[in-house]
Protein 1
Amino acid sequence: MTSPAFPQVAGAPRIALLGATGAIGASISQALSAAGTPFSVVGRSAAGLSTAFGACPLATQRIWNPDDAASLRAAVRGMDTLVHMVGVPYDAFHLHPRLMRAVVEAAEAEGVRRVLLIGTAYPFGRPQAPRVDESHPRDPHTFKGRMRKEQEDILMEADARGALQGAILRLPDFYGPGVDRSFLADLFTAAAAGRRARVVGPIDTPHEFVFVPDVGPVVRELLRREDTFGRTYNLAGAGTITVREVARQAFALAGGPPKLMVAGKTMLRLAGLFDPLMRELVEMHYLMTEPVIFDGSALERAIGPVAKTPYADGIAQCMAAARRG
């Protein structure tokens, strides 16, 4: 299938990555760079953007303060398409819908045509089917799920009223080389260091993970097409795997058996008395016992086959990165 070219004007960047300095932003920027597509990267910190993108000739850096409407409008001015992946602290999920509304209002005011939101499985709540497709009820029973659902609704309501074209790409839990905001991350650093790894249990439930470098090419293909907007998509991982099996493979590459310290829900509650992050993890623990496994067939119908790195290869790459430090 031949993809149409990206909409551009005289080679100027028309795509802006909001919240670009994270792992997903890096993957998307690499995919756009591989296609020779100029883009803008938007973040709060000039130093952070320079560190992440200073060596990328196709990236134009823009600083914003998303709490300031004028700064937000300036950041998206002249753009055709926004990719929204702005993170918030795990104990401040109430900011997700607030920021989404501000971005939509700025996009509408500046004539931005399309907004792609990088989302999560949280809005679905507990899975009601072995495989969750886009028609699955969004019935979140957690605060974080409700905030993510509200975030989605703000964007797709703007699409419905014709203010802009919206789309959502939902990701499962992710992992990748050097990706520290993954609950698998400590497995790789611990195996490389020869210490006990801290993991959240149960560890024998089949789970799904997406390899971060696989995300960028998917986003690039969604952005290349016009008919992919106005819809939502679930990106499935490369099948399922248990945390125990990830640990077995990672430690085997380091030359030894797995050494694990497993925290269940009760331990998370106790740790949460002293650590706010641990306290926040309790609410989402259902994903360890009732994981959401995506059906990604709608995405593949929209953009064609999706390349997915097998777990063995992904784990090997993560271990290589962990050894390099």
Protein 2
Amino acid sequence: MPDPLKYNKDYDRLTDEEKVLFEINKKSISDFVEQSASLSDVNYATRNAHAKTYAVTKGRLIISENIPQEFEHLFDKKIYDLTIRLSNAHLKINKSKKDIPAYGFAVKIKDEQANLIANYPLVNFPLFPINSVCTFLKLFTSINQFYIKKWSSFSLIAQIVKVIPSTCTPSFIKNLFKLFQKRNDFILSFDFYSVGAYRLGDYMVKIKLAPQSVDKKFTKSKKMKEAAEDYLKSKTFSADVYIQLCYDIKKQPINQLNVEWKNSPFIKIGELKIGKEDILDPASCENELLSFNPYESKAFFQPVGKIQRLREEAYKVSLKTRVKINKLLKYEA
């Protein structure tokens, strides 16, 4: 294999138009979170994506003995402590038994002093349907405004139509078909992925989490939240952690998120484990206010790419608004 490409901040750079649209989008995020308690019929402000929590748990990341030599200096410990949140991607909390099969597995990695090393919000679909930052911002703003009833459904439909062409790649269609086949499977039986790329030291990688021997039908006859809690209380969960390296920007594109990376083998860097006693109370103030902003990670673990760049301020706006509202609605300051 050739040498991996090194990170360059040009991959992240936004245009002036994109920055203007982002400011509009940030206001729509704040507006949505301010109304989220009534939208989801709960007594606290929710996130504006992945609002529904299935479980919050502790865990451990055990680093492999044979990781590539160029990454050994990034992992000076054998075992790292984790905080993990399982969620559904919907903007609102669905009270019915059946949820859309769009799941999140967010991981917070900490050192022995409980200082943050990295946040990784992983999802069970490896691709993202939008490459254009402007298109994404307009769509996301339309969705927020649709829910808070300031824009009509016509505006939202118009933005959705613009996205359809980018979902027609062979990679995207193949993964949609795979998701449809697994639509009724248990959340912890899915593989989870970083949507875009991340830095790993000087290089750029994608991340994959592959569970070991999880019964995909464990959820049968149960709501997903109940199934996730029952599983984590009764079984040990293990998953292999892999990375793919970016060697060639044409075969492993950073800002083209609707195609899979080619000619980049998966490299195992460790195992993630959750014990039977690790589950936490998801309704506690501390856990409800958890944020997994990947830009709060140490510099050499942060995201790469233009769509990824939007996450930094979006997470900050969402958390700031949630903290403000939740102190009024539910929690003491």
Protein 3
Amino acid sequence: MKEKAPQEPPKKTRRAPAPAERKIDPERSRRLLLDAAMDEFAEKGFAGARVQDIADRAGLNKQLISYYFGGKEGLYRELHQQWLRREETIADPALPLDELIVRYLDETFADPRPTRLNLWNGLTGGAVEPEPEDLSGLRRRQADGELAGELDPAAAMLLFMSLVSAPVAMPHVVRQLFGVEADSPEFREHYTEQVRRIVRHLA
């Protein structure tokens, strides 16, 4: 009697999320995907990030990225909008200029990922075309005496952005100059106070 050859198990194919799967706590799924995307983009930039890796970090089906955000580009754009909403809570025009810059610095120390993402965007590009920087607030502060009249507000803005992003962009230089890690409490306290003093001297 002839034996039948064992049949190979059917190959699994990737499927789109079922309607019921999409309805399971969509806000939580969106939140997990956005957080995973921030990690991935901050580590690899827009070009280097892979949709599958983002989904794996979030523990979700990668089809949900297309379903909720329309793909990788839409996910990146949503992170950009998320930052703009967050920035509205940071940029208080009533704060003195030095305290405003320190508030941005505190935000960077608390979560360096948006700064890393911005650095990648400058080096390799991203899915969002940068809009011209609004300098009206700095010009108002300059008129009020918080920024010396001979300083170009655009140059001052670039300086402030550099002060805030330097610990994330150049942690090796922080070690060389200060002898401590860029994310250490000692450096954070010392550098924050120095940033305050530098900004005050620009008045």
